[in-house]
Every structure is written in C-alpha cells, then in structure tokens.
What we know:
73% of the residues lie in helices and 1% in strands.
Amino acid sequence: MISAGGGKTEIAQQMKRANRRAGLRALALVAPLMALLTLVFLLPIGILFLRAVDNGNAAELLPRTAAILAEWDGISAPEEPFFAALAGDLQQAPKEKVAELAKQLNYTIPGMRSKFIATARHARSATAPFAAGMIETDPAWATPRYLTALQRAIPAVTDFYLLAALDLQRNESGAIGAVPEAEALNLEVLSRTFTVSLSVTLMCLLLGYPLAALMSRAKGFKASLLLILVLLPFWTSLLVRTSAWVVLLQSRGVVNTLLAWMGLIDPNAPLELIYNRIGVVIAMTHILLPFMILPIYSVMKSIPPVYTRAAASLGARPFATFWRVYLPMTMPGVSAGALLVFILALGYYITPALVGGPKDQMISYFIAYYANQVTNWGMAAALSAILVAAVLLLYVIYNRLVGIQKLRVG
Length: 410
C-alpha cells in the first residue's frame, strides 16, 4: 500500500520527467535553427570581433628577431645580433607575409611600411655583417624606435585597435594616453553618431506619438488609409527614399522652390537643407518614423477608452487625464519605439553618406571605410565592437527601466 507522502513524491518525479522530455523535444525542434543562426550570424560576428585583438603572425614570421626582442631592455640601440636575426628571418619569409607585416607596422609608425619593405629587399641580398647595410638603407634602424614597433607586433593579441578606436595609444614606456589632438577622430565620430541618433529619435517621437494616437482613434476607411500611409516607406527601397530627399532638399529642389514661390525665402539665397546635419536628420526621421509609430500604435490600440472617460467623470481635466492616465499606459510602446529607432539609427550608413556632408558621417561610414578602402580589418572590427557594446548597454538600460516601471505598476 502506497502512503500519501510516497504518492505525492512519485507524482512529482513523474511531472519532472514529463517536463524534462517536453524540454528536450522543444530543444530538438529549435536546434536546427540555432545551429543555422550560429553558423551564418554569430560565428562570422565572433570572427570579426577577434580581428579587433588579432596581432597577426609576426612571431612566426620573425622567430629569431622575436627571441632577441624578448631580451631587449627597450632602451639600448640595436646591435649586430639583432640585425643578423632580422636579416635571417626576412631572407626566409614570404614576400606577401612581409608586406602584411609592413602594413601592420605602418599603423604604429606612419611611413614605416615602405621603409620596412626596402629593408627586407636589402636583407635578401645582404651578407654579414648586416648592421651597416641596414642602417644605410634606413638610418632609423640605429635608434630603438623601430625595435619598439617590432616588439609590439610580436604578441599574438593586442589592444592597439581597441585603444585607437577610443583615440588612445600606448607611449614608448607602454603607458596608455590620448593620441595627439590632430589625430583624434573616433571619439568625435562616436559622439556625432549618438547625437544624430538621439536627434532622429526625438523627432520621430514628436511626430509619431500624435499620429499613432490619431490612428488608434480612427475608424473604418480612415484607419486603413493612415495605416497604409505609415507602412508605405517599407514598400520602397531605402536607396530610392534617400535619393528622393536629395531631389527635395537640394538648392533648386522642390522645398526651396515652393518656399521661394510662397515668398518666404529669397530665390537667390535658398536654404541649405542638404549635405549637412539638417538633411541627415530629416531623411533619417522619414525613414525611421514607422518604427516609432507602430509600437506606440499597438499599445494605444489595446488601451480601453473607458479609462480616460472614468478619469474625466472624476473631474480630471483633459491635460491631467492625458498626463496621469493615458501617457503612463502608452510608455511601453514609447520606450520600445525609441529604443528601436535609436539602435537602428546608430548603424545607418547610406542615408548620411548621400545627404550628409563630410562632418555628418557616422561610425558605420568609417567601419565601411576601414573594411573596404584601406583594408584595416583591425580598426573596422574595433569600431564594430564598440558599436555593438553601445547597443548592448542600451538594451540593458532599457530592460532595467522596464523592470522598474513594472515594479511601480505592480
């Protein structure tokens, strides 16, 4: 005879086994999708991020030189053993690998690429002693400067690109400090990216909130028409929409022509609405506006109108009803739309490139520049990592704010 306590224990165990089997079946169903997602999305991104700290294969290319530099004090001038080791390594190294190393060294010391290639060309035909010939090829080999650059290229992992992405560098002693003001660019680009994204988000919120409220209260054909007008940008290519704004905003475009016809501006002095920050914000606001409207509209549509009528019946004025009843209930849609628009704006590339000026390009432009034009994958990966880190930080802050809001409501 089974006791009541034993029966409960057996039932609990059976429920655990059933839940475990259900969990395994669910995992088996999503496993192919997770494998595909890992293979085509997560793995390439992970490989890209590794390039931000990858220092190449200098240690394998210059093994004897690496052994000499491991014992170097970082101060004294190079002597014949160093030049002999470097010449021996360069004589055996493939030319394409030497060119890659020279390009890497050029990031540390501008102009070293051509000099290092010239040194490698001389070393292939040189005989001992090597010091005099290499110094004659480039007198800088008589100083510790090039040795410092080579020593930093030896480790397989480096923080050079991540520091450079934040306008930082290591000095000759290894301490981290700011780059010269004339070379500082990336922090300004990051600040510009966040400023433009925040401006676009605020503009989308100011325009999207009233329109979402109008859509949520519309009925029949009017509601369908408004929804189609909001969704219309999704049915048009991003490049086409951006090019249309070039036509509208240029000096002799539709907007300036209309303003001149209305007598609001001088026809000979049109407004500068393109190739500047104004054009970027206008075009990006138009493109991203649906991403703000739709989350707010979905929340507004689910709010029963009885709440606002109840507040009015209790004596609340229209503004108080909106501020204390309606607005707090729409905040989940507002926060979701703002987060979505802001994150999308952070990575915009085509629109600022077409309607913005040189001082309006955002971080995505420079990622594309380093990846496609100068083939500096380390800097492209470092800037990408910073952008992804900023997005993840925003997501964490959003989750925290949503959690606090739920606690207040509860």
